[in-house]
Specification:
Blueprint (H helix, E strand, L loop, with lengths): L1 H23 L1 H8 L3 H29 L1 H22 L3 H29 L5 H9 L1 H17 L4 H18 L7 H5 L9 H32 L3 H28 L4 H25 L2 H14 L4 H11 L4 H29 L2 H26 L20
Helix pairs in contact: 1-3, 1-4, 1-5, 1-6, 1-7, 1-8, 1-10, 3-4, 3-5, 3-15, 4-5, 4-8, 5-6, 5-15, 6-11, 6-14, 7-8, 7-11, 10-11, 10-13, 10-15, 10-16, 11-13, 11-14, 12-13, 12-14, 12-16, 14-15, 15-16
């Protein structure tokens, strides 16, 4: 079990690093390549757009050829792209193109790791497993934040991408070989059908939540410098937010394995609490309070972004016949939220103000909670015989 968890964690971390490095190293990258705040939003959005495009097709591929093969291929590709970003990205256009390609690989890795955990980890421990795996995403943000004072401000931002490429390359060697030969895997029975309507609402909820979270991670460092933090302290603050999200995702995962409480209800509650974090961020920008800004980061990124592991676990538990396909569908919403979040937050911050941008993100989180609860309600309605299914209703409808 520990080996499977570590493999999934490393693959997920490597897949998330390109997008988060672009956000946390934004000050240094912008100064080097000479582009503005809105352009940074476009670059980060390109990463998530690539992931949104690949998520569903990659989930079908993972079900057909196995999660391990997809994990190996995508992680190797991420290593190559990270190295190219550090060595060859001399313009905003090239950086954005490389980030979009990295997003395609990131979107492919997510359903593959979900399938891998669903098949390798006992059901009684999957809450903790998905919490730990999803902790890789804020952990990548934490690494990006630490990279500001440790690497970017000492030897340059390009070295941070180079070190990340080495991490991804090492991960490829650690991923075990598939147990089932490819020829036999292709001949296996196709994965079960999924009941689509609840997944539409879950995808919307994940998308709105990611709209807020991706906008915050892309501009947290830049906003922190406007409140009065130095460049090094701003990077460490982003790392603190990532650490809070790591702790929340792991803790909630262990809680889910031991609690009978409805998982989607817990997800909605955490999203609502995160709304208070965005309100604190908006207030801190007006009062120039660094303490209030710090509290807002911890709430918005810790609690308000600490539910993703529990969310994926709840979706997998509801669609055990086709976990990769189900999470592939919901991830489309999440990735699209990642596309529009940095774009909208960057545009509003540049044209209006940062407080307005954080309030926009807070409204999105409230809508996210409503969408998750709507999907939860649909899961309680029998899927059999209803329109909108892919094939027939899945036999595993409840979380």
């Amino acid at each position: 079990m520990s080996r499977a968890l570590l493999v999934a964690l490393l693959v997920a971390t490597a897949a998330a690093l390109p997008g988060f490095l672009a956000g946390t190293l934004a000050v240094q990258i912008r100064a080097s390549l000479r582009f503005g705040t809105a352009a940074l939003g476009v670059s980060v959005a390109g990463f998530y757009l690539g992931a949104a495009i690949s998520s569903v097709p990659a989930s079908w591929v993972a079900e057909r050829i196995g999660g391990l093969r997809v994990m190996r291929l995508t992680t190797f590709g991420v290593a190559v792209l990270l190295a190219c970003m550090g060595a060859f990205a001399r313009s905003w256009w090239l950086l954005t193109a490389l980030l979009a390609c990295a997003g395609v690989l990131s979107g492919s890795a997510a359903p593959a790791t979900n399938l891998f955990l669903a098949r390798r980890i006992p059901a009684a421990h999957q809450g903790a497993a998905f919490g730990i795996k999803q902790a890789a995403v804020p952990f990548a943000n934490l690494l990006g934040g630490v990279a500001v004072p440790a690497v970017a401000l000492t030897v340059g931002w390009r070295w941070a991408f180079g070190l990340a490429a080495l991490l991804a390359a090492g991960t490829v060697a650690f991923v075990p070989a598939p147990r089932v030969p490819l020829a036999r895997r292709r001949g296996q029975t196709a994965p079960g059908p999924v009941w689509l309507p609840p997944l539409v609402f879950f995808a919307a909820g994940l998308g709105l939540g990611m709209f807020a979270a991706s906008g915050l991670t892309a501009f947290a460092v830049l906003a922190a410098t406007q409140v009065g933090f130095g460049k090094s302290a701003a990077g460490l603050l982003a790392a603190l937010g990532g650490a809070a999200a790591v702790a929340a995702r792991i803790s909630v995962g262990f809680y889910a394995d031991r609690s009978r409480r409805d998982r989607f209800a817990v997800v909605a509650s955490m999203i609502i609490i995160g709304t208070a974090g965005f309100a604190a961020l908006a207030a801190s920008m007006r009062t120039e309070s660094r303490w209030l800004f710090t509290a807002g980061i911890v709430l918005a990124l810790g609690v308000g972004w600490g539910w993703n592991g529990l969310f994926n676990y709840a979706v997998v538990a509801s669609y055990r016949d086709a976990p990769a396909r189900a999470t592939g569908i919901t991830q489309v919403g999440g990735r699209l939220g990642g596309v529009f979040g940095p774009l909208a937050v960057g545009l509003v911050a540049q044209q209006v103000s940062y407080p307005a941008a954080w309030l926009l993100a807070g409204v999105a989180t409230l809508a996210a909670a409503g969408s998750v609860l709507a999907g939860r309600r649909l899961l309680r309605v029998s899927a059999r015989g209803r329109p909108g299914t892919i094939g027939q209703a899945s036999s595993s409808r409840g979380p």
